[in-house]
Design a protein that fits this description.
mainly alpha, 21 helices, 314 residues
């Protein structure tokens, strides 16, 4: 329960108690309806009047509480009452509506309305909401806004079918989010591993979901960024890491040096590399043998020496 306010029902407790008492009186009169016709009519009318008062009280309380959030939209993320969230969803403020759309407690019917909002940020917040149903995610996956589509691709509830469609998106960031989605299929990863963008291919190379046969191919990619990402992936086959350890680019070898799956003989070889950053990676690698660490403890680069000494003590 939100601690900032009482619920509208709690604040209208006095009216609720009156309704309850009046109903009890009415039930008593109903035991002998023929003799109590006038009293029954009066009490029935009284209950209708009290219900009308109660409704207005609740509406007024909701408006008052919603008004607080108009100036404090960041607080909306802790709100859990559907009637408040529904009222706030009709706000003229983009920030307020976006905060409601992102709230995991927002009712589906309210998310449905907000998914049609003219503001891009509001629709994007619906797309990132973990409680947004599949049918809304599907609709938003074809939104005109690349930001909205990207957030759909990132949502862990997006289906393989939705991800398949988004994997062909023109926006590179959307395709990268598809790669990082836990529901991504091998078929999608296979297709995106051949994408024209090196950033997309690099994201495939770095993904823990990418199969070894795809990583093996990416280890020979023409772009340094892709080979470096492959070198960092702990699922990359040892033979591919061995080849990458001979790469002409320092950053690629540094990736191999950091990879805990790199064979010990390769780490030993890299410990003699001309780049201090590569040797530092070897010193940090949990798979580096103690003998190699002892050699690195006398390294000419101070940071390598310190890391190696600390690793030996640990």
């Amino acid at each position: 329960m939100n601690s900032k306010f009482e619920t509208p029902q709690e604040q209208s407790q006095s009216t609720i108690e009156k309704i309850k008492e009046t109903k009890q009186e009415l039930e008593s009169l109903l035991n002998n309806p023929e003799e109590n016709k006038k009293g029954i009519l009066e009490l029935t009318q009284e209950i209708e009047k009290l219900n009308s008062i109660l409704k207005k009280e609740i509406e007024e309380r909701i408006k008052k509480q919603a008004l607080f959030y108009e100036g404090n939209h960041k607080e909306i993320k802790t709100e859990s009452r559907p009637e408040i969230l529904e009222t706030l969803s009709k706000s003229e403020s983009k920030k307020v509506k976006a905060s409601v759309a992102e709230n995991p407690n927002t009712p589906v019917k309210t998310l449905q309305k907000l998914s049609d909002d003219e503001e891009e940020d509001v629709r994007a917040s619906v797309a990132k909401n973990l409680n947004t149903p599949l049918n809304l995610l599907k609709k938003l996956s074809s939104d005109e806004s690349k930001l909205v589509r990207a957030f759909v691709a990132e949502n862990p509830n997006a289906s393989v079918k939705i991800l398949q469609a988004l994997s062909k998106d023109e926006f590179h960031a959307t395709k990268i989010f598809v790669v990082e989605n836990p529901n991504v299929s091998e078929e999608i990863l296979q297709a995106l591993s051949k994408d024209e963008s090196e950033y997309v291919r690099a994201s495939v190379a770095l993904s823990s979901n990418t199969p070894s046969h795809i990583l093996k191919r990416l280890s020979k990619d023409e772009h340094e960024r892709v080979r470096r990402s492959t070198a960092l992936n702990s699922s990359t086959p040892k033979e591919a890491l061995q080849e990458l350890s001979k790469d002409p680019f320092e950053k690629v070898k540094e990736g191999v040096a950091h990879n805990p799956n790199t064979p010990k003989d390769v780490l030993e070889e890299l410990s003699k590399d001309g780049s201090g950053w590569v040797r530092e990676g070897v010193a940090q690698n949990p798979s580096t043998p103690k003998e190699t660490l002892k050699e690195l403890s006398e390294d000419s680069m101070h940071s390598v020496k310190i890391i190696a000494l600390k690793r030996i003590k640990d």
